[in-house]
Structure formats: structure tokens, C-alpha cells
Amino acid sequence: MSDNSIALIPEEPRFIPATAKQIIARNRFAEMVPDADQVEIFVSETVRFFDCGANFEEVHCPLCGQEISLDWWQERMGEDEDDGFKLDRYRTPCCNGASTLRELIYNWPQTFGRFALEAMNPNIGTLGDEQRRELEEILGTKLVVVYQHI
Ligand SMILES: [Zn+2]
């Protein structure tokens, strides 16, 4: 038995929407995924990594587009985590540019944040652009959509 979830995370990893907006957005999101097991608000003291689980395939450099080795990436993940992620800048192995782990391009998308709306087993496939935009308006932030498959 495998699980799927959809997590919506602000583009700015440290941003936390006002509580009233969180609740409105959560209720609206729940209406969009009526068959979900549950829809929850997640708030953390520190920056957390939202991964896409088994959907994770590769990481690319945001500066030159080259694929980055998972060994390099895992080492930086270990280095960056210190009671949450610091999101420091690191020299990329491909073009010696500077990038945070948040800025790397993940396929499928994954990201970092302190706030998320998460729907467990939403049963909708993908979230429509229009629905995402509606939640972005409620929360006052652009959102990254992470589809996790476990
Ligand atoms: Zn590069």
C-alpha cells in the first residue's frame, strides 16, 4: 500500500502566512480534494525539507542547467542541516556558481519551508493552476507544489 500527498509550500522558505489566512486556505484546499484522507496545516520553528519521495529523479544546477551528482547534493544537505536548514550558498560542482539548496532545480519538484498545507491521498492527480493561484491569493504568497509518493 503506497501513499501520495500534495504539499503546498511558500516560495520564500521562511514565510509563514497569518493564522487566519492559513485556516481559510486549509478549508478551501480541503474543498478541492474532498476524497483526501486528511488536509493539514504544518508550521515549523525551523526550515524543513519537503521531499517528493519516490518521485525524486534528479537535481540540476539553476545556473548552467547541468545535472548535479546526488553524492554532492547529499553532502551539502548534511552540511546545511543544523536544527533545520540554513540554506547557505554553496559552490556548484559544474560551473562554480553559488546556489542554495532551495534554488537547485529538482525533478520532481521538492523544496524547503516552515509552512505547508498538506493533503494525504488527495485522489486528484495534480492540482490545477487555477486552484493553486486561488490558494496563493488567500495565503499572499507564490506556492511550490510538491507531489510526494511513498
Ligand atoms: Zn552549474
Give a verbal description of the structure.
The chain has 150 residues and is an alpha+beta fold. Among the domains are: 13-43; 52-108, no CATH class. The protein is built from 3 helices and 9 strands, in the order βαβββαββββαβ. The strands form 3 sheets. A 4-stranded antiparallel β-sheet has the order 2-8-1-9, covered by helices on one side. α1 (19-32) packs antiparallel against α3 (129-139). The longest helix is centred in the first third of the chain and has 14 residues, at 19-32. The mean pLDDT is 97. The structure holds zinc ion (ZN). Zinc ion binds at residues 61, 63-64, 66, 92, 94-95, 97.
Could you outline the blueprint of secondary structure elements for this entry?
Layout: E1 4-10, H1 19-32, E2 38-50, E3 58-60, E4 67-68, H2 70-80, E5 90-91, E6 98-99, E7 105-107, E8 111-120, H3 129-139, E9 143-149
Antiparallel strand pairs: 1-8, 1-9, 2-8, 3-4, 3-7, 5-6
Zinc ion (ZN) binds at residues 61, 63-64, 66, 92, 94-95, 97.
